Amino acid sequence: MVFTGNTIKLELAELKKYNLYRRPHRIEVYGARALINGIEKIHLCSNDYLGLSRNPRVLKEARFSLRHMSQCSSRLVAGNAPKLLELEEQIAKHRDTESSLLYPNGYMANLGVITSLANKRTTIISDELNHASIIDACRLSRAIIKVFRHNDLEDLEILLRSTTGDKIVITEGVFSMDGDFSALDQICCLAKEYNAMMIVDDAHGDFIFGSPGSYSGVPGYFDVKGMIDVNVSSLSKGLGCFGGYVASSTLVRELLINKSRQFIYTSALPEHLSAAALAAIPFAEKGNLQHRLFRNVEFFYKKLTDLGFSINKNASQIIPLMIGDEKLAVDFSNELMLDGVFVQPIRYPTVGKGKARLRLTVTSLHTKSDLLTAADSFEIIGKKNNII
Ligand code: PMP
Q: With 145 labelled, which of 264, 281, 340, 368 sits at a CA distance of 20 to 30 A?
């Protein structure tokens, strides 16, 4: 098919027809608040779970290290700045692995590690709700891809049993759109039993769960030390900074440096961003921010369920308010916005068709009054739209 202006217009019209069209607002974030197109709203869709993106010490470190905007070079040419190496050492400690390797973001970390470890003779067994970056990485690796039903251990075992040759099992720590935990301890046991490599993307659990300061994240929560071969994460969520990493053995790191196109052929993470992440780690490891976060999560979750909203119970800071119909989700979000609450409708292909939802995220920065005001809006608009 030859692409013309008309075919593009048709494609966009199709998205609009099915309420799947996306249009970014103009957004200026100020912690628990955001100016959307210049008007202040309560911000309920941030991944800055601990509020560290605004921490004065983190900002100061970033400014102090701002000698240039970036190294303007890949790591293997002239971008291998000391702050990156220092951050990699800290991340390896945090993950209790031999080493770690930074990527410009979490998306690239997934692409980098999966395409380096898998090839067309490898079978990747992947949870059906895994993030788009994992899906894209699996496809790019040319491996045989088998998908197991979400968190379904029986299905996973059937796939493992029927697979010969090199196998990789990959799952997330906390699922980004449902907010539930993977059954990581049992998945790790199955992977070991069937001699499969185990990869976990802990973007949303990292620095949030487990014991802050020691073995952290969802692997820490499940205490599966030594059972995970490769940890992937993003620095732009729990840590409130920017970048991605792979924490693994030194052997895997060596392979990535020599093979991973997402490491070799792109500019290094800027030094000041590494400095910011280094400054953020001690704050994330104290534990008090997580305490504040989960006090807010429990409060808001209870408020919404008391109002009668259908919310899958999970233990995380991601609260998926299930709507189903795409149009209803968009309308609900628009009406909330008019009432001063900023929440995004999550639709296909991020989630399945007819499984639209509002993905609410609470952070440690919200006050009780923010959450009460937001809950009032949810009540009025939920009732108006016959959702409660
Ligand atoms: N993995 C998961 C599970 C994610 O949710 C995301 C981003 N939302 C990423 C990876 C990508 O991370 P980054 O934003 O750093 O590219």
A: 264
